[in-house]
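Notes, Module 5: Reading structure tokens.

Key idea: the token line is not a picture. It is a compressed description, and you learn to read it the same way you learned to read a sequence, by spotting repeated patterns. We will look at two proteins. The first is printed below with its tokens.
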Amino acid sequence: MSRIGKNPVRLPAGVEVKIEKGTVTVKGPKGTLSRDFPRNNGVAIALEEGSVVVTRQNDAKPTRAMHGTTRALIANMVTGVSEGYTKDLRVEGTGYRANQEGANLSLAVGLSHGVTFEPPEGVTFEVPKGNKQILIHGIDKESVGQIAAEIRAVRPPEPYKGKGIRYADEQIRRKAGKAGKAKK
């Protein structure tokens, strides 16, 4: 039995879950999320006493694979509508900066042109600290993580000086530069 899949998803106060025909809708103080789950994958989703329980009907390999995944996706939806998700990015490098222009994010990271990101629905950008920090907020964990990865991909951190865009908790393995040849 899946260790993740067998744990029920507890519903915090103010969060409602509606399950109908393979669609799970979670409504909370921060918003509403909805996701379709295939009904023929051998996984059943049910509401029981203030929690969501995911069970599997057989031990086939695809069913076992979807058991824990389904439970984790529902847990992420519940956390998103109750607390929300935030990704913290840092901009490192001389002349590298991020600016917020309305709802959009504008990056100047050593390219011949500026790069502008328009936030997807339900995601907001914030640039609080001297143009060197980017906060991405939203209720959908998948879209927050995806837009953070796309922003980081514009200028990933390089291993010699560490310049680029990185996650706040990311450790960059630094390489030694060229060793100078001794003069005789």
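Here is the second protein, with the sequence above and the tokens below, as before.
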Amino acid sequence: MSKDSYNIRDIQNVELTILTKFAEICDRHNLKYFLDSGTALGAIRHEGFIPWDDDIDVGMPRDDYEKFLEIGQKELGDQFFLQNVRTDKNTPFLFSKIRKNNTTFLEWNKRNIDMHHGIYIDIFPYDYLPKNEEDAKKYINDCIKLNQKFLNMTIPDRAMQPQKSLKWIALAVVRRCIYYSSNIFSKEKLIGKCQQVFTQFNHDDEKKSDVLFSPVFCGDYRFPENIMFPPQKVKFENQQFNVPCDHDTYLKTLYGDYMKLPDEKDRVGHRPAKVELGE
């Protein structure tokens, strides 16, 4: 199926199937999760998907996230694949995805990566910031830098659809040069460093604050624990899923006036290179 011939609603329906399975597993094992980012925004503003959005995001506290990784693939069964750096060696992100087997959602900048490219939902881990503000700023800056290093090492291509302009080609060459030069270093050591830095305050009761932060986000977005938990159920596509309990504060932190629709020119999703819906 070409990038122009699919119906976004068909992609959303596959993603909803994945989300439903994920939520069932979390509820059965008492694992905390919440609809995250644009998916939470869609739940509150549209009671479902943002009409032009072609992915689903969920967040989990790190401990619950790790527990899910331990049981996830067995619980998901043969229909789905739990993808991360542990299960798919060329994975170019430091969080997890659940992909639907026998489907395709091929993003332009990942088209030359040998990995599972099925339709997916994203699962983002959340960690605790330190109490000291200077330490918190340093921690966030370290996380952003480590994420960028990992992206440089694992993604060889630009995110945009290839073009014939000299500017596009020149920037594509620069991107490849960054990719190849980054790969003189050990990816396994970098993954280990990221895990150590991201989680360093989670179990240090003297230094740990009650503020959550997702280290895989490239921005300073902080969420006090009491606006996140306990999550509450809201309607999303005629089903019930968790969102942060104070979803108003959460969404204002991310989007400001979140009920205001963006300009029509900005109402776009990932614009994949290839989509296959499977059977």
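Summary for the second protein:
- The two ends are 13 Å apart (CA to CA).
- The chain has a mean pLDDT of 94.
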